[in-house]
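Hi W.,

Here's what went into the run:
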Amino acid sequence: MTPQMIFLVFFGGAAVWFGIVVFRTRSMVRSALALLFSQTAVGVMFLLMQAEFLGVLQIMMMATEMSVMAIFMVMFMMDPGGMGAMDMTHQKRLSLWAGGIGLVAALAVIWLADWGPMGLLVPDAAEQTAQLGRELLDRSMFIFESAALMILTAMVAATMVAIHPSEGRKR
Amino acid sequence: MIPELMIALSVGAALFGVGLYGALSQTNLVMIIMGVELVLAAALVNLVAFWRYLHPDVPAAQMFVLIVMAVMAVEMAVGFGIAIARFRSRGSVEMEEARELKG
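Here's what came out:
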């Protein structure tokens, strides 16, 4: 077992374990923090797979995203600390079956498929970022711009949905 | 067989399973968003693993990772927009109480 494999197993295990903790703990704030740790472990996996730019981006993005999520938890929940031991689940058996079948089906595909030979020539971090930049502003520019438009539309839509209906009538 | 690819894809599959369970089993809108985030994280792991172990010379694979990250941000923004609207009108983000769209 190479060191890369050992660390992949360790951080992959951490990502999955914290993912499970998200739905096991009763405290919503702890759930948000567990999701942050899970996403950070995923980011570290990216770094291990030599995708430095994406790894750092993932960690930075998820840190801010999960902080926002924790704030929303405290704002919206009657019991964000989980002291009241409320049960906020439904159709547990069905969900377990769906998650289990999804997992087994994905594992079957992963372990039975022939993935072909391994690509060996990984560009260094600076070259990767330069290549990605060229890809985004050249061949994939239309897709990249579509993503930008999607974010803008979502921002406008989210703001419009969140504005109180009476605020529009005051003017 | 590429062992590192198998490990990364298996982690992705496990994250997908956990996320799917969470998205289906939770009654709170913010917790459902968390489940979907885990499913998207599984997609990210798979994309980076495919790029690194199968096609490290193709930068388009990394571009897809950026698109999925954008989808994650959009999903969260719209989800929280709906959560705010729901909280204002009903005082709760419990999806068990959201039955207006049911015929």
